[in-house]
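Lay summary

Proteins are chains of building blocks that fold into shapes. Our project writes down both the chain and a compact code for its shape. Here are two examples, one after the other.
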Amino acid sequence: MNATTQDARPSGPEIRQQVFRAPTGKPTAPGGGDPFLAPFFETAIEHVWGGVWNRPGLELKYRSLVVVSVLAATGHNEELKTHLRGALNLGWTVDELREALLQTAPYAGFSAANEALQALSAVATRG
């Protein structure tokens, strides 16, 4: 990829905002705006959102589904809730996400799928 192509892509904060936009449309603060965590989130936004999420070849919506599946399989349920909200922002429906999480059961285990489905239920009913 040349510098011109890379410069034309959105920044990490712009990509993150597309996924995690608040219902008001205002940017969401990573880590709840905790200044202690700010250096960590600055690094994550630069490398994860500006690097991996910003690559060509896969739409944000599908990248989101991959992340949801991995978080469900690895039992990172608080982060999963955040990414489930992002997946809904990107156009996945609750029913589609439920099916994706059911698909994780035979591969990641029924306990992991159960906890992930509970996280989806909480997000779907409480936001």
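And here is the second example, written the same way.
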Amino acid sequence: MIKLLFVCHGNICRSPMAEFVMRDICTKKGIDAYIESAATSTEEIGNGVHYKTAAILNSIGIDCSKKHARRITHSDYEKFDLIFGMDSANIHNMVRYWGDPEHKIHLLTEFSSDGKRDISDPWYTGDFESAYKDIRECCEELSVYIKNLN
């Protein structure tokens, strides 16, 4: 079983979207994976998924109502095989927090058709659909990569 962690600033928009989309993809493709998401900040701890993220997930049949934001912990680095940041600021904060001696930390868009770039934060842009499309594409590509590891 592979263990994946998706990380963004607050754990209410992009990283829970990636967590639930990737979990759905893995279930449908028969990939044995344990998947969570977390924040680099403490700003949203305990809050539920942003209502616009929840609406997108609900529209594709995914319930995220039990998810609450949490911050990354020191033990997360050991627990997870691969850790994905949504943007370069997330990567910077994770490397500052953990280091990355085992090279587990990656920008999620490493698994996209147009390479490394940030997934825009819909908290600021208001464009949750674009974030979803980017995350969906990356998670689909990531699932192919993971399936090929076995």
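What can we say about the second shape? The radius of gyration is 14 Å.
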